[in-house]
Amino acid sequence: MILECSHCEAVVDATEIATYKYEDHWDKDEAVPWNTRVILVGCPRCSEPMLAYQTDEGGWTDPVRIFPPREPDLHRSVPKPIRQAFAEARICFRAKAFTAAAIMCRKTLEGICSEHGVKSGTLAAELRKLKEKGVIENRLFEWAEALRTIGNEAAHGVELVVSRQDASDTLEFTEALIQYVFTYRDKFEEFKMRRAKAAQPVEEQPNEDSPQDF
Fold first, then answer.
1. Is the domain of 6 the same as that of 105?
2. pTM of the model
3. Is 68 helix (H, G, I), strand (E, B) or coil?
4. CA 180, CA 196: separation in Å to the nearest integer?
5. What pLDDT, in 10s, does the model give residues 160-177?
6. How far apart are CA 47 and CA 95, in angstroms?
């Protein structure tokens, strides 16, 4: 069974140890349950235990690792080009191409600016405009500036080698920035609108049985 071992950070042919099958209702109103199985496997390199999940859809689907948990996917509210750029940054990190991961995080920042119609020639100027427009606030601007700096160093400093820790932090801060700009900020605005609407007084409807003035 082909899975990615989080300990080895490599794709391995895991050894199957035990399987548990059951019927899963994805929806409580679903009439027909899905045949499902969870498989306990071990990494042939480091013996790390893992759990994989599959469903029967006329044949078992490709296994998905559910433990240790995988990196969560970005929310669907994040534009596709930005999801793709960040996914490539993660791929570079897993391949231990840490400098490339930092460069792809910088590209992701450029995508965030472009998505908000900010084009000023340099990324530094674009980030300042994002702040002026209220898309990001002071602390996030500091994060974005730090990400821009390490991305620049990775792209232009031929002798610079980005460390694993720096690449990991860069990925983490980039993801937090993406989640804030495209997910949490919009969710909070929706929350405020719902609260404001709920606070509005309800207009009384005239009673058809009550006498009316003519």
1. no
2. 0.63
3. coil
4. 22
5. 888 989 999 999 999 989
6. 21
